[in-house]
Fold these 2 entries.
Entry 1:
Amino acid sequence: MTKSSTKTPVSWWEAQEVGSGQRLECRVGSLALTIGRGKDEWTLASSGIAEEDAEAKASFRIVKGLSEEVDERFVHSGHSGQVLLSPRLADRPVVIRPRQPVFLLSGQTITLYLSTPIWLQVQVGDPAVLLKELPVLRLSDTWFGPSTREGELCYAGRTQARHDPAELPDRPHRAITPLTIHNKAASPLPLEKISLPVPLLALYGDQQGKLWTQAVTLTRQEQGEMASIQIDSKASDGGSEWTRLAEPRQDTGRSGMTRAFDLLFGH
Amino acid sequence: MIQDLLSSFQYETLMAMFRAGILVILGLFLASLTSRLTRRLLQQRVSIQMQQLLRRIVFYGLLALFIASAMRELGFSLAVIMGAAGVLTVALGFASQTTASNLISGLFLIGERSFEIGDIIRVGDTTGEVLSIDALSVKLRTFDNLFVRIPNETLIKSEVTTLTRFPIRRLDLHLGVAYKEDINQVREVLMAVADANTLCLDEPVPLFIFTGFGDSALEIQFSVWAKRENFLALRNGITSEIKDAFDQAGIEIPFPHRSLYAGEATKPFPIRIVDHAPPEQDS
């Protein structure tokens, strides 16, 4: 049996050491990743785990010996055996569909906690060199737009649309976005499809190893035609304990934007 | 006195002819010199056909100028020549009808912008990538790497499909399931396959249409959408996934069926068993 040592840092995105001839076996939610350090090269193998079998906490194990089945090999001669798994948010907006239709009546406000799977950047060495960036869970493609001629390609997500943060299950591979929706129009707002502008959000990690983004506020204007998005400049709850892990992929430069209503809320 | 006039007239004519001759020779000399100069200047820049064409144009152009002035010296009126040239132009016009049509069609095609360089178009049976939109024709490269030239006139007159215009594309799958199958179950199986396939778009929602009661099977159309670049990958992926899902669910895709009746639908088919031994044959 190969000797192994298990260590699970609470903040699993911190650096780990892998000696030469050893491999690091990681399980982050629905992704199983094996990073091996050979002589002057690093090897990478990944496989998916069904979401039902995903564990609540990320786990890491250092095993002696390199595995024979590798997906990719990266030539990199360096003395440092440091491995850094940095989480990042998805590279496209995520379209969230609540499992049951939710109706927001006129004048009401609701805060939903939506989760999106993260991408992992595998970096090795010191200074850190990026080997690969891969998603923890490959979501299905979907199209979000007013017609088949215009719109953008997004990822499709399903959510339970929980209001209570205490109900949120522990899942290390998903980042939670608190989304507040105000309905200032006279008619009820059906929340069937919401396009969450994930590339505009930054990623934060808290002390328990959970991942968060800033709060996003969507306001449907009185006339009902336009909706405004407001993204907080920094994380709101427990701001001082949270570490900013990743910058937004796209920077709009403005915190508030107004878009046509049907670009945010599909029908 | 008449003799003086005649001799001076002859003298004028001779001088004119002499001057005309000089002009023509000078013209020939200058024209050939200029054409050689043109060739030297354009050697690296343009193709051989273009070079030769330009040389000829320069040569004959200059020569024509000098001949025209020589003719003027001799007293010929240029108006007559212009008249002849007018008739020639009309004749040329009739001959170059197609070329002119192609030229103008080309301008309209470019103005319309229904396809651009790099787009993939289908004209009739030919599908290919647009390499260039030239004055008289459009050049395509087909998928099996052949070069096709399509006159602009044909493009203006006929239907052109631009496959790369919109970002997403629908794949229509036509399948048939056996009559004994439950259509709702088939629909659920197909929707589950589409849901599990990551390349298949969740929105627009996959379309399930029961097209009719076929000869041998229940005809179904299942349409799924994908990003245009993933179309081929989806086509190959989802068809094999559907086959696997059908096999797992026990849904049968039938072969063509033919039913035989012995006159009445309910009566059994009469069969007579013949003795195996073949009869004796002569020769």
Note: The helical segments of chain A are 261-264.
Entry 2:
Amino acid sequence: MSITTPNGFQLDNSGKRVVVDPITRIEGHLRIEVNVDESNVIRNAVSTGTMWRGLEVILRGRDPRDAWAFVQRICGVCTGVHALASVRCVENALGIEIPENANTIRNIMHLTLYSQDHLVHFYHLHALDWVDGVSAVVLDGHDRFSLRDLPPTVGEFTRGSGGGQDKFGVACPNTRPRAERRDIDGLAPTRYRPPGSAPSPGRTGRSP
Amino acid sequence: MRRPETFYELIRRQGISRRNFMKFCSLTAASMGLAPSFAGKIAHAMETKPRVPVIWMHGLECTCCTESFIRSAHPLAKDVILSLISLDYDDTIMAAAGHQAEQCIEDVMSEYRGQYILACEGNPPLANDGTFCIPGGRPYVERLREVAADAAAVIAWGSCASWGCVQAAKPNPTQATPVHKVITGKPIVKVPGCPPIAEVMTGVVSYYVTFGELPALDRQGRPLMFYSQRVHDKCYRRGHFDAGQFAETFDDAGSRMGYCLYKVGCRGPTTYNACSTTRWNDGVSFPIGSGHGCLGCSEPDFWDNGPFYERLETFPQFGAEATADKIGATAAAIVGVGIAAHAGLTALRQAKAKPNSPADSEHRAG
């Protein structure tokens, strides 16, 4: 049996069908399935978002000055960029030109978010996909391993390591990622800064 | 059943000294607003009580609650996640995916039946039989009910789980529904905010672990220790409000002087949250500190209570469309008069106490 999705993807049972759902790195809101043939080659791959909130529908008829806050909620990990994109859209639609200084401030906010996002993403969200937790725990002298024993944050990986490597041998930019990251968070135009520091149409978030 | 390690056993195994352990207890007590004597109680609980297993589920959400949580400074999220609780399932920061992840939930549910905490981030959509959120191929609402059935308590993280938040804003296309309307017969604590303050989140968890029960809640189910005051009450710009000094637009002199942001839409006067005291990022700042009004993100239906940059005219209790009808107009008038009178009276009182104060002339100049 074979099904074609509305956007043209093919779902079927050909070859060996592997489904990973939920993808936990997307908070469970992603499903990936592939069909693998006899020579272990992926012949078909489909990814499916498993959540829909309808922000586009909700935005209709709203005050355009508020749009950035709604779309910022598209993602709580990369918040600021959605707000900034929204603000630029509104300004573009209404023909608003912002001063050069405002643009510079926005760029600084954006790049700060970029840096903090890298740290969060690498240490909290993605490291577990790249570090072989099972082997690492064996290395660390544990004789038994269960998922419960795996430190769920990288803060733990790096705690107590004195130099440029954590205990898994992964190079660390510093040995106190949390403190450093928090300092960066303080500058970042994300919701953790918090919401107010996002720019809104025609201005930047902060008084000059 | 295997006895889970206590917090104390675990940190000693990690090589942390007793002195540091006691320091942690004092800081935790302070962060929860408890008297210093409670540090001893916290220490006792952590020496004797097993870590609490937690299942953290994600419905319609944006993960901002998790992101906020991992930024907690007192106590560090690391200490909470690794030591206070046993975070057995959290989609975002767990290693497993797919079947492995689902197996984790099953394991905790059977091994710790009736003992684990269900932490909900986001809410279930009920429209179209719940198919707007189908992690693992099943409607989220089904999974939520199953896991809640054997939970000791439920924590509703953020405005999504507490009130509905952005996806429940009009017209709420997916019929997103707050957790307390789906799960009944369980103790539920709401920790609203979009996202909630990190220290508030870890504070609630620490309290439960320490005392084995949820903290005292207000009528709406929020912990009193963090949500009993309005942002306005402890705002550092409150003095300007009382003196009648307001920013009229975002680029005027009043704005540059750091005057009250009420007239450019600040929701501080109707928002119950700890932002003005606890602040964010280890106490660095909060929205008003960045020169932007409070959006009221911890209040029900705040999305439909806009526009955000218009002066607050109505209270959420009267419904989002209150200004459009007669009741709303009356309510708005009363509220408007009330707030104006409040501002006027305090200004008058100050003017009487200090005639021709520099603050007054400054305002006129601005």
Note: Chain B touches chain A through 83 residues (CB under 8 Å).
